[in-house]
Amino acid sequence: MKRFQFSINLMARVILLVSVGLLLMFGGFAFLGLQAVRESTERSLQERMLLARITASRVDDLLEQKITFLQTMIQDTPIDPDHPAPETLTPILRTMTQHLGDFVRYIVVTDRQGNVIWSEPVVRELVGTNVATNRYVHLVLQSGKPVVSGYFAPDNVDSTAAILVPLANSNGAVIAAVNLRDPSISHLLGPLGLGNRDRGMVAGRCHDCHTTTADQRRQNGVMAFAALATAPWGIVVQQDEDEAFASSRTLERNLLQFGAIAFLITLVVAWLLTRSVVRPIHTLIAACQRIAAGDLSRPIPRARGGGEVSVLARAFDAMRERLKKSLDEIQSWNTELEQRVEQRTRQLADAERDRRELLRKLVVAQEEERRGLARELHDETSQALTALVVGLETATTAPAQSADEIKDRLVPIKTMATEMLREIQRIIHDLRPAILDDLGLVQAIDWYAESRLKPYHIQVAMETAGTEKRLPSEVETVVFRIAQEAINNIARHAGAENVSISLDFTEEFVVLQVEDDGQGFDPNVVMARGNGNAGFGLSCIRERAALFGGTAQVESHAEQGTIITAKIPLKGTRENGQDSSSARGRSHHVAGRIEGASQSVG
To answer: Which of 391, 393, 394 is nearest to 417 (CA)?
Structure first.
């Protein structure tokens, strides 16, 4: 199932990021604004609560004053409810009524059983009525302490609030019915006119706000309540919610409107700015796509207004120019590389031809060595063996007079056999001297040089450098053959008097240098001529060194002698080592048989 990939362009990403940033910023502002609105609302509620508490405190003070007045009047003019007389109670109650004024509707006196004795002004419905069943009356008669009642509602009388003060020794009580419409208390208990001032003050009973009419609608309101300390009353400050929180909601509405307008304006500005940035980037994208398609000829348009996009356009154009230059160089290099590959191919073909020629020369050299060995065996050994056979035939067939005569015949045959044995030993040593296997490369070259050059009265000096050590068999063999060929060329052609031979042993190479003070020659002429033993010997030296990964140089000038330097690496092949070991074993076997034969003849 192919995975769904969601991608949006640069402009949408920038707008999205700006929108998220704006939302976070305006969210912070909105949070702070809501905090301010909440604090404003809380402050409005606290103000109304404070107003309710102040009003409750004033009502408490007013009630305390009235209670204190009634207690003072009762103490100054004792009332005896056991001997009630209207002419006695009327002046006292009238004095109280006059002093309290419109604050009270009427004042009644009860005995200790709660029976109403008298009232001022006279309320016929109350006189003689028992009000002990009223819990406030019962509480005053039992406790002997003044009480402010809630709604005091005796039978057949309008309900009202009352101040109840006990008489001396709880013999009864004075009950003052409070006139809730008195201005001294009505402006504290009625609506306070909060909100819009065009409504004015509202006068009326406190429960007018609870009346229901057909044109009224239910509205949310704000209410603050504070309980009185002297009465089971409470002060309620009530206001319509829309009026109470008008400033807070206006602030909240202004914040929302300002935030929305600012957010939209900022989005438009961000879109315009992003568009001014994205359009040059689209131009760069088109130019880069054109470059990716391989069109490097047209330059990249420069962005207007400068800034980072313009710098980026210049950088891309510089990259285009360098890329074009690099491609041109690569094309040139490819052409040159193709030419070099062709040249290298020709060189490899030439090297292959040289290798084949080298192999051919190696085969020729091997055949030439075999031919020389056969010629020497034919010229020397074959003739000596023939003479030996003829001498033995003569000694065995011719009659002899005595043993001395036979002995005299065998002496020349013995001498001939001895010479033939020496010649065979010389040929064996030429093939591979036993001293090379027994004593090493330095002694073998020194021995061969002395034995080959001493008959020509040529002085030989042998030197070594580095740490002399035994080398791999194939390396010793090729170095010895090069030295042997150089020594043979000196003996045959140089006409030298002194020869210097040096061997330098290093960690990776062995270097052989053979130098003589002979007549010298021109190596180029000799190698170009390609015939004669000298030219053949030089070719063998170079070919032997090349077969083992080494080099051979010949330096010679007329009348200035010759220097042959061969540098052979100290690593050979296993096959060469096995061949050398086999050759070494065969040479030891042949040499041993010849030595045994020589001892027998001797």
So the answer is: 391
Q: What would the pLDDT profile of 13-57 be if each residue is shown by its tens digit? A: 777 777 777 777 777 777 777 777 777 778 777 887 888 888 888
Cα–Cα–Cα angle for 519, 525, 531, rounded to 5 degrees:
95
Name 31's Cβ contacts closer than 8 Å, sequence gap at least 6: none
Whether the Cβ atoms of residue 566 and residue 515 lie closer than 8 Å to each other: no
Specify whether the backbone of 234 is left (phi greater than 0), alpha (psi in -120 to 50) or beta: beta
CA gap 131, 113 in Å, rounded: 9
Contact between 132 and 113 (Cβ < 8 Å): yes
Per the listing, tokens 């060189």 go with: 347
Tokens of residue 312, six digits: 């980026």
Residue 564 has pLDDT above 50, yes or no: yes
Strand partners, 151: 161
What are the Cα distances from residue 584, in Å, to 86, 209, 436, 461, 595?
A: 173, 140, 9, 27, 16
CB 517 within 8 A of CB 496: yes
| 491 CA to centre of own chain | 78
Q: Render 429-491 in DSSP notation, one character per residue.
A: HHH--HHHHHT-HHHHHHHHHHHHHGGGT-EEEEEEEE------HHHHHHHHHHHHHHHHHII
Distance CA 331, CA 362 (A): 45
Rounded-to-integer distance, Cα 422 and Cα 30, Å: 125
Residues 6+ apart with CB under 8 A from 480: 433, 436, 441, 444, 445, 448
Whether residue 435 contacts residue 444, with contact meaning beta carbons closer than 8 Å, is answered with yes
Q: What is the pTM of this model?
A: 0.39
Which amino acid is present at 349? A
